[in-house]
Design goal:
- The protein is built from no helices and 24 strands.
- The chain is globular.
Length: 258
């Protein structure tokens, strides 16, 4: 009843967890400890690279190698819509905090901003020079960020659609794998195959911290809801980092969880 191949993405809400897999499925789990059999959604015929769940737990999105982002109704587990436009594999997709918009990016080097209600692209950004590996919204839904394999970070204004900030060589020449806005402060967290995390001061437009501790390429990162901790994982270890937001910059301390 669970995945039969590698898991590619995990997302959680208050009561549910969704996971995507190379086996072309998305699994829906209850957000509590204990052994369970998930509900499997089979909406794609190719590996699913990303998934997310809307805050109201009505919708789940999935993005796959079939170049589509698909929306499924969670209460009845029924397919609703396909968002078509990408011309290559879709590597990342996320709901906005309100659930009204979706950002997606992939191997066609584009980032797309979608309207959930109209099921169409509101904007396509072509500023990424390499495959897009991660996308995210800020907490106020005013910005969309994307990272790519050539170590570039781009941030666009979600309302005017203009490019707001551009960081080239964010981790030297190492591919970026994940990014996340701080929930309350003008900070962006980035993770890379170079085994480091970096925190960017978006107000000052500069690097704030470089954090080491992983022994393998980092796959993903995210902040907790309060912004005082963040989590990162590689292929073997998950780290929980403490990050009290103070000035001057502080050094993060990690607790490793095998």
């Amino acid at each position: 009843g669970s995945h039969r191949a590698a898991v590619t993405c995990v997302a959680a809400s208050t009561s549910l967890v969704v996971s995507s897999s190379m086996d072309a499925t998305v699994a829906v789990w209850s957000n509590h400890a204990g052994k369970q059999t998930p509900a499997l959604l089979k909406m794609h015929f190719s590996p699913v690279r990303a998934c997310d769940i809307s805050r109201d737990e009505r919708l789940v999105l999935s993005a796959a190698d079939d170049k589509l982002v698909k929306l499924t109704s969670l209460p009845d587990r029924k397919f609703l819509h396909s968002l078509a436009g990408h011309t290559n594999w879709v590597q990342s997709a996320r709901f906005s905090p309100s659930g009204s918009f979706i950002a997606s990016g992939g191997d066609d080097r584009t980032v797309r901003l979608w309207s959930v209600e109209r099921h169409e692209a509101m904007r396509v950004w072509y500023d990424c020079p390499a495959s897009v590996t991660g996308v995210c919204f800020d907490g106020q839904e005013s910005a969309v960020a994307a990272c790519s394999r050539d170590s570039t970070i781009n941030i666009w204004d979600a309302r005017s659609h203009m490019l707001r900030q551009h960081y080239s060589c964010a981790h030297g020449s190492s591919p970026l794998t994940s990014i996340a806005f701080h929930p309350y402060h003008d900070l962006l967290l980035s993770a890379s195959a170079d085994r480091t995390l970096r925190i960017w001061d978006l107000r000052a437009g500069r690097l704030r911290n470089t954090i080491s501790g992983h022994r393998h390429p980092i796959h993903a990162c995210c902040w907790d809801e309060e912004g005082g901790r963040f989590v990162s994982c590689d292929g073997e270890v998950l780290h929980v980092w403490s990050f009290p937001v103070t000035s001057p910059p502080v050094v993060a301390a990690a607790a490793a969880v095998a």
